[in-house]
């Protein structure tokens, strides 16, 4: 491993004694992942024992999703276009204790960052509910439905399964259903239809 964790652990035993959790993703824009996680980071901020960092290496589309999530995070790094080594270095310099990869084997993944092991504990969650392999992460966060415990022998990672009544796929039940580019187009069509109906009534 090219990074040292000496200062990382020292930071935990400082005055704050907060667990530093970093999320790594390219999907903080008008994307299904952003739709799912919007609101989650605000819940993290309620837990004073956790300090949240988001490492976003995807495009900034200026969407409302992007703005809402950025405002929710205590620390937000816009790393679009940055090389993987620079992203990994930023993670290590922020003394992240737990790095959560939200892409895994999907488009625009950051497996090269994980291969550098910038954080002492790396886990996978959300983007791909399957194993990564390659000794890149130690745990896979999932649930008993998408990753049945009986199949644990097929995974290189340890399975961190949520209780059976929960699903690994987070969701924001309070979100506005009319956010996003697709919803905006739909709203315009509805407005146009209402206008046409009003004109017909006249």
Describe this structure in words.
The protein is an alpha/beta fold. It folds into two domains: 166 residues, 3-Layer(aba) Sandwich (Rossmann fold), CATH 3.40.50; 29 residues. The protein contains seven helices and seven strands, in the order H-E-H-H-E-H-E-H-E-H-E-E-E-H. It has a seven-stranded parallel β-sheet with strand order 3-2-1-4-5-6-7, with helices on one face. Helix 6 links the parallel strand 4 and strand 5. The longest helix has 21 residues. It is globular and about 75 Å long. Keywords: Repeat, TPR repeat, Transferase. InterPro entries: OGT/SEC/SPY_C.
Beta-strand residue fraction: 15-25%
Along the chain, the helix and strand elements come as HEHHEHEHEHEEEH
The CATH architecture term of the largest domain is 3-Layer(aba) Sandwich
User: Tell me, what is the CATH class of the largest domain?
Assistant: Alpha Beta
Layout of secondary structure:
Blueprint: H1 6-12, E1 19-25, H2 32-37, H3 40-46, E2 50-56, H4 64-72, E3 75-78, H5 84-93, E4 98-101, H6 111-115, E5 121-125, E6 139-142, E7 158-161, H7 181-201
Parallel strand pairs: 1-2, 1-4, 2-3, 4-5, 5-6, 6-7
Compact description:
The chain is an alpha/beta fold and 202 residues long. The chain has two domains: 6-171, Rossmann fold (3-Layer(aba) Sandwich); 174-202. Helix content is 32%, strand content 17%.
Provide tags for this entry:
single chain, 202 residues, alpha/beta, Rossmann fold, 7-stranded parallel β-sheet, 7 strands
């Amino acid at each position: 491993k090219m990074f040292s964790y000496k200062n990382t652990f020292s930071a935990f035993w400082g005055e704050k004694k907060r667990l530093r959790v970093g999320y790594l993703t390219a999907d903080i824009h008008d994307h299904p992942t952003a739709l799912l996680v919007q609101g989650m980071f605000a819940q993290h901020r309620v837990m004073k024992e956790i300090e949240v960092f988001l490492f976003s290496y995807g495009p900034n589309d200026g969407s409302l999703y992007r703005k809402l999530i950025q405002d929710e995070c205590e620390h937000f790094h816009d790393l679009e276009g940055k090389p993987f080594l620079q992203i990994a270095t930023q993670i290590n310099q922020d003394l992240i204790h737990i790095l959560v990869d939200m892409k895994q084997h999907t488009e625009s993944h950051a497996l090269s960052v994980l291969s550098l092991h910038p954080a002492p504990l790396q886990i996978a969650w959300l983007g791909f509910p399957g194993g990564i392999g390659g000794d890149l992460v130690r745990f896979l966060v999932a649930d008993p439905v998408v990753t049945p415990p009986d199949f644990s022998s097929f995974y290189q990672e340890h399975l961190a399964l949520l209780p059976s009544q929960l699903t690994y796929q987070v969701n924001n039940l309070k979100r506005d259903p009319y956010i996003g580019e697709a919803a905006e187009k739909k709203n315009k069509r509805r407005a146009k239809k209402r206008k046409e109906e009003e004109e017909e009534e006249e």
